[in-house]
Amino acid sequence: xxxxxxxxxxxxxxxxxxxxxxxxxxxxxxxxxxxxxxxxxxxxxxxxxxxxxxxxxxxxxxxxxxxxxxxxxxxxxxxxxxxxxxxxxxxxxxxxxxxxxxxxxxxxxxxxxxxxxxxxxxxxx
Length: 125
Fold this sequence. Notes:
alpha+beta; 6 strands
């Protein structure tokens, strides 16, 4: 809004004009995205190989070894000492060394302790 500051007249005349600069800026940005958007997508045809391997059968009863925050071990729902973990694992796996063992740990367990348990499991076969 503008006004004339001439003191000759008692009334002030207001001049109304629309500022179209922001409208033009928005329109140009939209135009750029409308033109550049389809050009940004690249259609490359890739022929991916098909896997012919059969999926591995899942264990009927998976074994879960859990490391608790106090660094004690659990096999399933039973507590296990580190010294007796080998015999307990053999009994739980029924002597099958190919039985998968899933290792879980609390988030407060230090990483080094988790690695020690993994090394213990590897040493036991």
